[in-house]
Specification:
The chain is mainly β and 297 residues long. It has helices spanning 3-7, 213-216, 249-253; strands spanning 10-14, 28-35, 45-48, 55-59, 67-72, 77-84, 91-99, 102-109, 120-126, 137-140, 143-148, 156-162, 167-172, 179-184, 191-193, 195-199, 218-223, 229-234, 237-242, 258-261, 268-273, 279-284, 289-295. It is built from 3 helices and 23 strands.
Length: 297
């Protein structure tokens, strides 16, 4: 039974820390819980709903069904959405945004562990209203397009939409330092070459670290609703970048971030801001899906 686990949330104070000694750090309170969506076993992306307050969407990793799973900030299931017109070769992130007054979701089929895919794909769909009883829903992709990187194939698990700017941002995973890329949300052709914006500023593992990937690999990204802060997560840290008025995301990512410790869960692969940007929601692969709310300042 999952219900007792949902009630057994615990607040844990975890100190922030910054590997390499660059940039500020902060402490945060974390409330852990599990997600009552039995089919969600490899949560690999996370997005806040623009239509249903307090609701989040997630999806499974590569090869799974083209389904999105809705749940609230306590882990209660809110519905399942089957997406028609899409393939799940390697779904790695999802981003919620509002465009022309319509809440939408962007699903990123961008995973490429061996850097062999000639192109990867982004799917955009209108976010439906959830049934009060949590019934299964169906929708169809409204548009999709493929992208290539100017410097060759890249594994990517971190994607976020800046709807005001009309751009989609992507962070590479397996480079020595993550690289930031940008593509238009409305490209003029079905295949677009991403714009390379350079490496970001982010702590790196020490040369003798026993498990450098746990520090170095970026697994998800999200922009706050006001498009002033970006959250990035690795397997062991969450990072927040803040941009000033009139500043680009590339400029914000060039500064050292504020960092936070995250729960010691099996494989943290998803992060999303709450609607008020007071919390970050995290999920990890696992059965049932481990999740946590991270209070940030």
């Amino acid at each position: 039974m999952l219900a007792p686990l949902l009630l057994a949330c615990a607040f844990v104070a975890l100190p922030g820390c910054q590997d390499g000694g660059s940039g500020p750090s902060g402490g945060a309170a974390i409330e852990r819980f599990v997600v009552a969506q039995p089919a969600l076993t490899e949560s690999s992306g996370l997005a806040r709903s623009g239509r249903s307050p307090g609701v989040y969407w997630s999806h499974n990793d590569s090869g799974g069904p083209t389904d999105l799973y809705a749940f609230d900030a306590q882990g209660a299931a809110r519905g399942v959405l089957h997406v028609q017109g899409a393939l799940n070769l390697d779904w790695e992130d999802i981003s919620g945004f509002v465009e022309d007054g319509v809440p939408r979701l962007l699903v990123a089929d961008v995973g490429d562990n061996s850097a062999l895919r000639p192109a990867v794909r982004l799917y955009v769909l209108d976010e439906p209203a959830l049934d009060a009883a949590g019934a299964a829903l169906e929708t169809r992709v409204s548009r999709s397009f493929a992208l290539v990187y100017p410097d060759g194939p890249r594994d990517c698990e971190a994607v976020a939409v800046d709807a005001e700017e009309g751009s989609v941002y992507l962070l590479s995973k397996r480079d020595a330092v993550p690289r930031l890329y940008r593509v238009p949300l409305h490209p003029v052709s079905p295949l677009v070459v991403a714009e390379a914006l350079g490496e970001i500023s982010i702590p790196r593992a020490a040369a003798d670290a026993p498990d450098p990937e746990s520090i170095n690999w970026v697994t998800s990204m999200d922009f706050a609703a006001d498009a002033r802060r970006a959250a990035v997560v690795t397997l062991t840290r969450a990072y927040i970048y803040t941009r000033a008025e009139g500043e680009s995301w590339a400029q914000a990512f060039a500064r050292p971030p504020k960092s936070y410790a995250v729960p010691d869960d099996p494989q943290i692969e998803a992060i999303a801001w709450s609607a008020d940007a007071g919390e970050l929601l995290l999920t990890s692969e696992g059965e049932p899906t481990p999740a946590a709310r991270l209070r940030v300042d």
